Amino acid sequence: MSTMPDEDGLNWFEAALGWLLPGYGLIRLGHRRRGAWAMAAVLGLFASGLVIGGLDSVDRREDGLWFVMQAGAGPVAFAADWGNTRLIKTGHYGRLVETPPSRLIDRGAQPRVSTLKSITYSNEIGTLFSALAGLLNVSLVLDTLQRRRTEDAES
Q: Which of 143, 145, 141, 137 is nearest to 6 (CA)?
């Protein structure tokens, strides 16, 4: 695999690495300090969203548009969604309880949710933090795509 810029002068390989592991593309281009700060910012912001809103704040099925933004953070968003889908929503962790009856739902079987489902503002703030982490990483990937390699970059 070539780590040289493409014919059009763009760093496609490093940009892809930057999506897989935020900041790593910048590190490969020789911008080590910038890449380390970028990595800390994106992963720290995403982790803060999970701490504040819980694993439930990353949900591909219920919050699809938000997940599009969260997916910009890379595979960590897909791992969080997998954890939410496979662990929280199935009842492997926490009990599943029936939701209170609603006028909007038929009188048939009520949906069941986990007791670990986060609610109110904490879930919204967690969703927002992880979405901001994804958008930040998208801007970093675009920066990596056009940034010049420095002399002390890895060969």
A: 145
**Alpha-carbon torsion angle 48, 50, 52, 57, nearest 10:** 140
In a domain, residue 103? The reply is no
Amino acid identity for residue 19 in this structure:
W
**pLDDT tens digits along 108-132:** 555 666 655 666 788 899 999 999 9
Domain-located, residue 155: no
In a domain, 101, yes or no: no
Q: Is 31 within the bounds of a domain? A: yes
Q: How many domains does the chain have?
A: 1
The DSSP 8-state label assigned to residue 107 in this structure reads S
- pLDDT tens by residue, 78-113: 999 999 888 877 766 666 666 666 655 555 555 666
CA dihedral 64, 66, 67, 71 (to 10 degrees): 150
| Residue the block writes with tokens 């803060």 | 48
Measured from the Cβ of residue 11, the count of other Cβ atoms closer than 10 Å reads 23
